[in-house]
Amino acid sequence: MSTSHVVSSRTTGREPEGVICRYSLDERVHHWLAALSYIYCLITGLAFWSPYMYWLATLVGGGPTARFWHPWFGVGFALSVFWMYKMWFGDMRITDADRRWSKAMRYYIENEDEKLPPEGRFNYGQKLFFWLMFYGVILLVISGLGLWFVESIPWSLRWLRYTAITVHVVAALATIGGFIIHIYMGTAMVRGGFTSIIRGEVTTTWARTHHRLWYEEVTKGTSAKK
Amino acid sequence: MSQATLAIKRISGHAGPAPGEGVERDYQVCKLVDTTTCIGCKACEVACLEWNGYEFTDTVFDNSYQTMPETTWKYWNLIKFNEHENSDGTISLLMRKDQCMHCADPGCLAACPADGAIVQYTNGIVDFQQQNCIGCGYCVSGCPFDIPKFNPATKKMFKCTLCVDRVSEGLEPACIKSCPTGCLHFGTKEDMMDVAEKRATQLRENFGFEKAGVYDPAGVGGTGVIYVLHDATNPEAYGGLPKDPHVPWVVRFWKGPAKWIGNLAMLGGIVGVTMHYLRFGPKTVDATKQENGGQP
Question: What's the topology of domain B29-247?
Fold first, then answer.
């Protein structure tokens, strides 16, 4: 990781701040594969969801095209989430630090971060979002197969058709809820988060503020980089 | 399938009143299938293929006289056979012409997400408009009779049109025209109900079919295809005709309350994060404020 890179301009009058690698190229690529495929499924899915949003299908080539690609992009989304699972399984386990943090979550919401206990590489909220998307995509893929190949479900097992519709809708709405919060926090609320998932770097101050335990771990043995 | 001749209400740039203005076609069309006089000749199957321009397909033998187990995207009319064992040990060979029922309350139309892909004409015909169909198959889940079928090559759904192209020109459907026994009738819903009820009464009073009756299921608002059955209390015996068909409640909920609950939840999420931003604003990291002095 290059440390000659000046990221922050907030340290006026001080030495340039150091940066830490937060996300590897592999992690960033899979995040964006997941993001783009999810957004495609969201646009086309909303088009199928409501007549008032059917015009969204026009943005991606019209109804039949949207219908053709929606399941394939869904499979792509699932694969990228499963890759994330492989990459982040260790980091996403709920720890004692998370349990302490979750009890103080209102301070996080109200931007009183100084009252929060220290967190590891991902905080409790990020982990919840990850597991929401992980289990959500499993349900979406299984129920989506039922919608994709609806005629392959025999008439005598038609309750499976109706279950597939219900599960797909509930799981989609749950992931949309998580998605709205994720986009908001990643772009507007937690400044520095968005650039970190693009170039992979955060400032040492950002790391120390938001993910103290992780910061201490990655800088252990070295003096804090400048 | 094709566009019906629609009643014209207004015409642009037209001097004087539009021809046909004020004329109302207030009747529903209806096919009556009298299963008690059907001989299973399958002329209606052939006529359907001929009129609609589909080639003959391979038959599928399934230990029955049936041409194939169920209708397909290019085989919209199928005589269903059932060797039904009566309570006295005798066998009845039941035959029923299976096709789209043209429900007054069509589940396919309720489930369909594509603008204009399924239409219901004022005369009651429910018709798929393939140019608007996206091939999602939601109609398959919406139909209580398992009728819409998917053409994998064109990725469009197909089913019986009730010969909308013939009916709109004043002709009877092709299947009706081909029937040699007169077990198929076509006319207004009112007239067909009348004929059907008379036939059922005749069966009850003169032929000993005490349970004879008319199949016009109320759960889907009545249908544009009605049956006279020897035993109206057991429609399932006639190739799985559902006793009390309804649009599945999941489809009703999905296309009704779930829409508004879901849309409000999504809107609530967007309003919620916006309000959070206005109230609390962003989290910024100010290096100058860091404790842990010395190291910026």
Answer: Alpha-Beta Plaits (3.30.70)
| Residue of B130, B273, B283 to mutate for A, most A C-beta atoms under 10 A | B283
Residue A135 has which token pair?
Answer: 């289990």
Residue A226 pLDDT class (50, 70, 90 cuts): very low
Give A24 to chain B, closest Cα distance, Å: 22
- From the CB of residue A205, how many other CB atoms can be counted at a distance below 10 Å? 28
Q: Please name the CATH architecture into which domain A20-218 falls.
A: Up-down Bundle (1.20)
pLDDT of residue B296: 37
Inter-helix orientation angle A25-49/A63-88, to 10°: 140
Q: Which chain A residues are within 8 Å of B288, Cβ to Cβ?
A: 10-11, 14
Write the ipTM: 0.85
Q: Which residues of B touch A64 (CB under 8 A)?
A: 133-135, 155
Q: Provide the residue ranges of all domains of chain A, joining segments of one domain with +.
A: 20-218
- Give the closest-approach CA distance of B94 to chain A in angstroms: 21
Is the Cβ–Cβ distance between B127 and B31 less than 8 Å? no
Please state the domain extents for chain B: 29-247, 252-281
pTM over 0.80: yes
- Number of A/B CB contacts below 8 angstroms equals 132
pLDDT in tens, B9-50: 555 656 566 655 555 556 889 999 999 999 999 999 999 999
Question: Quick check: B114 contacting A, CB < 8 Å?
Answer: yes
SS (H, E, C) chain B: CCCCCCCCCCCCCCCCCCCCCCCCCCCCEEEEEECCCCCCCCHHHHHHHHHHCCCCCCCCCCCCCCCCCCCECCECCEEEEEEEECCCCCEEEEEEEECCCCECCCHHHHHCCCCCCEEECCCCCEEECCCCCCCCCHHHHHCCCCCCEEECCCCEEECCCCCHHHHCCCCCCHHHHHCCCCCEEEEEHHHHHHHHHHHHHHHHHHCCCCCCEEECCHHHCCECEEEEECCCCCHHHCCCCCCCCCCCHHHHHHHCHHHHHHHHHHHHHHHHHHHHHHHHCCECCCHHHCCCCCCC
